[in-house]
Design a protein that fits this description.
This protein is α/β, with parallel strands linked by helices and 316 residues long. Helix content is 33%, strand content 24%. Strand 3 (56-65) and strand 4 form a beta hairpin. Bound molecules: 1,4-dihydronicotinamide adenine dinucleotide and 3,4-dihydro-2H-pyrrolium-5-carboxylate. It comes from Elysia marginata.
């Protein structure tokens, strides 16, 4: 079956130790999107199983010919995991040669999911947020909030972090992370206080299958940008009609999904169109914009190939 007797495995610590920058991640995502436009990279809509007890199981598939890699990411999200001291989302990425199918490597899927999701948001933000954004708010203060804070702190001249979440430990941990980045943080009493006070809003609330919407896009102030990682489940969907530009991750994937992120009438376009310059991310300083997404396999492939190539380079 395989040309090798063992398949290299890269742990979270090994991947984090490679020291990739947010700019490298964004550039690789954008490069892969350009390859996709030239029919040299491809992705399929994700396959999802939701058994009805809150679990969300999914597979993401993407492939490219330069480098010749196919990536399959498999994750299970279980809202009961944190009660047992486990991460909400766990999974793996498997890399194969996209021509022969021979296995190349297996990567920790938790690190890839954290960093690639922040990378997708950061790619959209580069086109959709104001360059001088200085206050960032987090609705949900877990793993995604952490990776987004790391990424956005390198892209924007941040001065303050607003926190709204559930669970004092997570809020405190994100506040500590902000302090490590020399950023003061404020725990807000309400989601509205956090959203209305921010130039950039990141929502990453636990997907439980029965979240009642409690966020309203009308709260975004003029000029603000929101990166909505949580499939927009906690947001009042009709409120997106108030925004100037709403970009999703992938129109083809969206068409294949039974539960839409929102009415297609509110969607300006997708990330590929944004990167390719086919749609504008921002027209006026006062525009209110959002990137709303469920996860794009191109992001997983982009980051996986980047880390694999970096790991090979560093082992030479
Ligand atoms: N679009 C994408 O590609 C991806 C999306 N996600 C989304 O991000 C979400 C969070 O993932 P992680 O950060 O890994 O999980 P996590 O468990 O580390 O963080 C979730 C945080 O949300 C908080 N929370 C739960 N209900 C809340 C509420 N009603 N109000 C405020 N805070 C609340 C929790 O206390 C926790 O701190 C997932 O449920 C999923 O929806 C995650 C990975 C990829
Ligand atoms: O694309 C992804 O990795 C995920 N989307 C929702 C939960 C995880």
């Amino acid at each position: 079956m395989s040309a090798s007797t063992s398949i290299p495995y890269f742990s979270e610590d090994q991947l984090a130790g490679l020291g990739l920058t947010t700019h490298e991640v964004i550039n690789r995502i954008e490069t892969l999107i350009l390859s996709g436009d030239k029919q040299q990279a491809w992705s399929a809509p994700k396959a999802v199983i939701q058994p009805g007890d809150g679990r969300y199981m999914m597979v993401a598939l993407a492939a490219a010919d330069d480098p010749s890699v196919l990536a399959v990411k498999t994750v299970v999200l279980n809202p009961r995991n944190p009660e047992q001291g486990l991460p909400l989302i766990n999974g793996l990425v498997t890399l194969l040669d996209s021509h022969s199918g021979l296995p190349i490597a297996i990567l920790d899927g938790n690190w890839i999911t954290a960093v690639r999701t922040a990378g997708l948001s950061a790619t959209a933000a580069r086109h959709m947020a104001k360059n001088d954004a200085s206050v960032i708010a987090f609705i949900g203060c877990g793993v995604q909030a952490n990776s987004h804070l790391q990424a956005f702190s390198t892209l924007f001249p941040l001065e303050k972090v607003l926190l709204f979440g559930r669970g004092a430990v997570n809020i405190e941990r994100l506040g500590d992370k902000a302090a490590e980045l020399s950023l003061p943080s404020v725990a807000c009493d309400s989601a509205e206080e956090a959203v209305t006070g921010a130039d950039i809003v990141i929502s990453s609330v636990t997907h439980t299958g029965d979240v009642t919407p409690f966020l309203d896009a009308n709260w975004l102030k003029p000029g603000a940008f929101a990166a909505i990682t949580d499939l927009a489940v906690p947001w009042g969907k009709e409120s997106f009609s108030a925004l100037d530009q709403v970009v999703i991750d992938d129109l083809v994937q969206e068409a294949a999904m039974p539960n839409k992120l929102m009415s297609p009438d509110y969607v300006t376009g997708d990330l590929s169109q944004l990167v390719l310059g086919k749609i504008k991310g921002r027209n006026l300083d006062s525009d209110r914009n959002a990137f709303v997404f469920r996860g794009h396999a191109m992001g997983d492939l982009a980051l996986s190939t980047l880390v694999y190539q970096r790991a090979l380079m560093m082992s030479d």
